[in-house]
């Protein structure tokens, strides 16, 4: 078994869609990035790469490469899944947390879990996604950005 962690932050700006966990969320602002800026999927990808000791998403998918401009992060997660399988691993379980003052994510969590478990070809019970505010403290509390953290355990494929 191998364990990995991932962390990501993206800035909230006007004129962008808010996409988190592969789901488009109704909000007056969205996250800024070279890709679709899906902060949760980025943290999850980095946790898997960390468990495999293969670096991070910036190394695999440079933000200077036009191929990744506005790319749907679900596509990138699919590439990470293929790398994990090539390395001989599968998801044991994954836990994650999104930190955002607004909007409320509660109503979107089940859809996110279904999308992510489908891409990672694992039972939805193996994927945990939670949300928290930071009680109005810091950059998250000021609604300047959203952060996400993920921890994963990978198992050798049987
Ligand atoms: N963006 C968010 C933040 C929180 N939630 C849900 O609300 C609960 C209470 O949050 P606190 O930060 O006040 O502890 C939290 O446990 C989440 O269920 C949310 O959906 N979206
Ligand atoms: C996902 C990538 C793809 O170019 O771009 P960004 O959306 O800027 O996201 P970041 O979390 O900064 O990771 C870097 C890149 O891998």
From TrEMBL:
Entries under InterPro entries matching the protein: MECDP_synthase, MECDP_synthase_CS, MECDP_synthase_sf
PROSITE patterns: ISPF
Pathway where this protein functions: Isoprenoid biosynthesis; isopentenyl diphosphate biosynthesis via DXP pathway; isopentenyl diphosphate from 1-deoxy-D-xylulose 5-phosphate: step 4/6
Keywords, sorted A to Z: Isoprene biosynthesis, Lyase, Metal-binding
Site positions (Transition state stabilizer): 34, 133
Ranges where the 2-C-methyl-D-erythritol 2,4-cyclodiphosphate synthase domain occurs: 1-154
Cofactor note text: Binds 1 divalent metal cation per subunit.
Annotated EC: 4.6.1.12
Keyword Cell inner membrane: no
Function field: Involved in the biosynthesis of isopentenyl diphosphate (IPP) and dimethylallyl diphosphate (DMAPP), two major building blocks of isoprenoid compounds. Catalyzes the conversion of 4-diphosphocytidyl-2-C-methyl-D-erythritol 2-phosphate (CDP-ME2P) to 2-C-methyl-D-erythritol 2,4-cyclodiphosphate (ME-CPP) with a corresponding release of cytidine 5-monophosphate (CMP).
Family per similarity comment: Belongs to the IspF family.
Quaternary state and interactors: Homotrimer.
Name this polypeptide is given: 2-C-methyl-D-erythritol 2,4-cyclodiphosphate synthase
Species per Swiss-Prot/TrEMBL record: Anaerosphaera multitolerans
């Amino acid at each position: 078994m191998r364990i990995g962690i991932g962390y990501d932050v993206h800035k909230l700006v006007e004129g962008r869609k808010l996409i988190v966990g592969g789901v488009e969320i109704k909000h007056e602002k969205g996250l800024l990035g070279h890709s679709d800026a899906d902060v949760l999927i980025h943290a999850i990808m980095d946790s898997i790469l960390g468990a495999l000791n293969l670096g991070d998403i910036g190394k695999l998918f440079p933000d200077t490469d036009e191929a990744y401009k506005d790319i749907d992060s679900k596509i990138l997660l699919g590439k990470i899944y293929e790398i994990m399988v090539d390395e001989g691993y599968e998801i044991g379980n994954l836990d994650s947390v999104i930190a955002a003052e607004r909007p409320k994510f509660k109503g979107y969590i089940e859809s996110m879990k279904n999308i992510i478990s489908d891409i990672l070809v694992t039972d939805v019970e193996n994927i945990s996604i939670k949300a928290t505010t930071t009680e109005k403290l810091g950059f998250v509390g000021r609604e300047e950005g959203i952060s996400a953290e993920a921890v994963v355990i990978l198992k050798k494929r049987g």
